[in-house]
Design brief:
Oligomer: single chain
Radius of gyration: 27 Å
Number of helices: 27
Strand content: 15-25%
Helix content: 25-40%
Length: about 800
């Protein structure tokens, strides 16, 4: 089976599209099927990608690199390439991919593809058109009003005032008529606000039309529908979406970055009768629109009991914990199985009979316990890392991974497949606590769905219940089965040497550095002292002031000591951008400290001049650091062209490094570009956000400077006693060749989009993410072996 996967596209959702395509690659390749990826840029030019290219970088990187280093396919060449595949899998979200244009192109050339036909996509994609079509045929809908970019603000305001008054709407939702991922969606309390929000949609080029409708007071849900082998729609168990806040909108950040402001409930907290009603309505709409294979439908359970559908997604997102996979897992599907089910249905329609050659685990496969969670502000990123590691290693023939979460109360839960896909650590732990009730509901809801999908009943011994143990029981069990512990933890006791010391005590192998180096690198002040002690004029660390909340520094004195009135504040022992903020006055320092003392979970944008995104705050902090804020050169991609304006000469880079038997090897550096003063969580870990270029363009950092950076990174890693691997963040001055070490991460993030995977792909030969993770396991096993040999030698002598 040869599948052409098409990703990218002209919409702002193209970053999510890349992650969807990666999921298809990750989970269908192990079946022995060949995945051939294609990328569509903003101008709808197509490029053939290698698998390594698909795994590497974000849309800005793609657009820049492909425009300069690859030749686009002509329309005829693209069609010819598609015809060499058995079937095409469109994975473009938003315009071109879901509006029917791509599907119409494939239909014209009689190329079979996965998903709904062009006519259905065209009808569903425009929210106003779909809503009007439903209303004409007797379906429940919300009243709506459409305004266009060509209308003046006065005309729009007058039109909306009449609409809001006629429908007695006190709070409205304004959204683009075309588009998904909740981009551009906002709330408004009157016609003036609604006009402003509509104009923002037009100014941000999110479309020429804006749709205004009532803000729903009901409960939001989303439901996947699959087409069974007989061509009948089968709606899965819906997911209820719970948002905190009166004006909460299920926005882009809520969807794609774990946050405690949103919770998913699958099964939903609805009665079985309501769930059945939602499923029947979704199946009717699937047939009504002429959908095929799979689709995701979003809707509301209104306070009066009505079910209203508001959005229709011909191509559901396929990120690692997307609704497709969450709802599929409730039925017993793995990621690979539900994708195979969807593709097989499309292949059946094309009269294809795909054969599979799934790999088998080796009998002596290394048992790996993947541990994530913990008590830190970084626990959600830890969940993303741990889930990605577990999913990647599931396809390894040499490794057998099992997911575990470290709870806030110190306990450890062994997780069933489906529980691991929940949106946040809090959701997972809630499901663990309610597992008996959830399993009882699933035992009622799942059997008829599996029957309708043509699947056999789940085996009686299916692992549906989580298991709670203490951390010492977790270690003792691992010791007994000679398991490897893959630490997906970030910050706190998971990265400061505490967990590493415990595992060493049990004689358990694990990834990353041991307790001494972990403790040193967690403390940014001590890290800086070690680097400065090298007395290397080209390798240093910024001066720092360390202080506790009990003894606060005076702003003027701090500025004088550090030689700057522009400072950066950060936790002394935390990472992942938690609590890292640029400050320029005593008043801003006071605002920051007040939020910290009040244990506010987030510092909201607008309170500090250079902070335009919410910053997660650590909930427990003893010491903080102040250091000079380093102004970097202006680097961004604009209209597929790299814009570089040199100022101070400083650029921010991040560099992975590996260690084996005391020998250090630096990976290729990545240049990182922040939209604001400090890299946000989104830019570090959320697919399709931010810019990370590996390697940096030669117009910014010359090849000989890359070689120098690698040399300095290896020196720094050795001085810090790094073991296994690490990621070191630096500033490099392209004028003076000086390197400033920001911090060393002994357990760097391993989320699907993180740069260390891009750097591994830049190695020769390239290491795909799964192979790189297997290497980290091998390095950890080797460290344990060396420690044991060293211990035996010392005992013998």
């Amino acid at each position: 089976m040869r599948i052409a996967v098409i990703c990218g596209g002209p919409s702002a959702e193209r970053g999510i599209s890349l992650n969807s395509a990666r999921s298809v690659m990750d989970h269908l390749t192990p079946l022995g099927w060949e995945i051939v990826p294609f990328y569509c840029d903003m101008q709808k030019n197509f490029y053939r990608l290698s698998p390594s290219q698909l795994y590497s970088n974000t849309p800005s990187d793609f657009d820049y690199k492909l425009a300069h280093a690859a030749k686009p396919l002509t329309p005829d060449e693209f069609i010819k390439e598609c015809k060499t595949a058995d079937i095409v899998f469109p994975a473009i979200h938003g315009a071109f991919g879901e509006d029917g244009e791509l599907q119409e192109l494939l239909e014209k050339h009689k190329i079979p593809f996965v998903g709904s036909p062009s006519k259905a996509c065209h009808l569903m994609f425009d929210k106003s058109r779909a809503n009007s079509h439903l209303a004409q045929h007797g379906f429940d809908t919300l009243p709506h009003c459409v305004v266009n970019a060509g209308e003046s603000d006065t005309e729009i305001k007058k039109k909306l005032a009449a609409f809001l008054a006629e429908n007695q709407i006190k709070k409205a939702v304004v959204k683009p008529t075309n588009g998904g991922s909740s981009l551009g969606v906002a709330t408004a309390k009157n016609a003036v606000e609604a006009t402003q929000k509509a104009r923002q949609i037009f100014d941000q080029k999110r479309g020429d039309g804006a749709m205004v409708e009532p803000f729903c007071e009901g409960q939001e849900f989303t439901v996947l529908v699959l087409e069974n082998p007989q061509g009948k729609p089968v709606a899965l168990i819906p997911t209820e979406i719970e948002l905190s806040g009166d004006d909460a909108i299920f926005g882009y950040r809520h969807k794609y970055l774990p946050t405690c402001h949103v919770a998913y409930h699958c099964p939903p907290r609805f009665s079985d009768a309501i769930i059945k009603g939602i499923q029947e309505s979704a199946e009717a709409l699937f047939t009504f629109f002429g959908m095929r294979d799979f689709a995701r439908l979003d809707g509301w359970l209104m306070k009066d009991g009505r079910v209203v559908f508001s959005d229709f997604n011909p191509i559901s997102g396929m990120e690692q914990n997307s609704h497709l996979f969450i709802q599929g897992a409730r039925l017993g599907f793995t990621h690979g199985e539900i994708l195979r089910y969807i593709v097989t249905r499309a292949a059946q329609r094309a009269k294809l009979n795909p054969q599979e050659k799934p790999p088998t685990k080796q009998r002596d496969a290394q048992q790996v316990r993947v541990l994530f969670g913990g008590k830190t502000a970084e626990r959600q990123v830890s969940l993303m890392s741990g889930t990605n590691v577990w999913l990647k290693l599931l396809h390894s023939p040499t490794v057998a991974p099992v997911p575990y979460i470290w709870a806030l109360d110190g306990a450890v839960w062994q997780l069933p497949y489906g529980y691991t896909l929940n949106h946040t650590c809090e959701e997972i732990l809630f499901h663990c606590a309610e597992a008996t009730a959830i399993t009882a509901r699933l035992n009622v809801l799942v059997p008829p769905l599996r029957q309708h999908l043509g699947l056999p009943p789940l085996p009686a011994n299916a692992d549906l219940m989580p298991r709670r143990i203490s951390i010492d029981e977790f270690c003792a069990e691992a010791q007994k089965e000679n398991a490897f512990i893959f630490l997906g933890l970030h910050g706190g006791e998971g990265e400061d040497g505490t967990m590493q010391a415990k595992l060493d005590g049990y004689g358990i192998a694990y990834n990353g550095a041991g307790p001494v180096s972990s403790r040193l690198c967690m403390d940014k002040d001590e890290t800086g002292k070690v680097i400065r002690a090298l007395n290397d004029p080209l390798l240093t660390s910024a001066p720092k002031i360390s202080f506790s909340l009990a003894k606060l520094p005076q702003w003027d004195e701090a500025c004088k000591t550090l030689g700057s009135n522009d400072l950066l504040i950060k936790p002394k022992a935390d990472g992942c951008s938690a609590g890292v903020v640029r400050l320029q006055s005593a008043d801003e320092l006071a605002v920051y400290l007040k939020a910290l003392v009040a244990h506010e979970p987030v510092l909201l944008p607008g309170k500090i001049k250079h902070m335009h995104h919410a910053v997660e705050l650590p909930q427990k902090i003893d010491e903080l650091l102040l250091e000079p804020f380093i102004v970097t050169d202006d680097i961004h991609v604009e209209d597929r062209e790299l814009v570089y304006r040199q100022n101070t000469g400083w650029v921010e880079l991040t560099v992975g490094v590996t260690e084996q038997s005391g020998s250090y090897h630096s990976l290729t550096p990545s240049i990182t570009v922040a939209q604001d003063a400090v890299l946000s969580l989104e830019e570090k870990f959320q697919g399709g956000t931010g810019i990370n270029m590996t390697p940096p363009p030669e117009s910014i950092v010359k090849p000989e400077q890359i070689a120098l950076i690698k040399q300095k990174i290896e020196i720094a890693a050795k001085a810090l006693g790094i073991e296994g691997y690490s990621r070191i963040d630096i500033f490099f001055n392209v004028k003076t060749n000086q390197t400033i070490i920001i911090e060393a991460n002994t357990l760097p993030a391993l989320t699907a989009s993180t740069v260390i995977f891009h750097q591994a792909l830049a190695e020769q030969p390239p290491m795909i993410p799964r192979v790189f993770l297997e290497k980290l396991v091998a390095l950890g096993l080797e460290r344990k072996s060396h420690k044991q040999l060293s211990k035996s030698y010392k005992k013998a002598n």
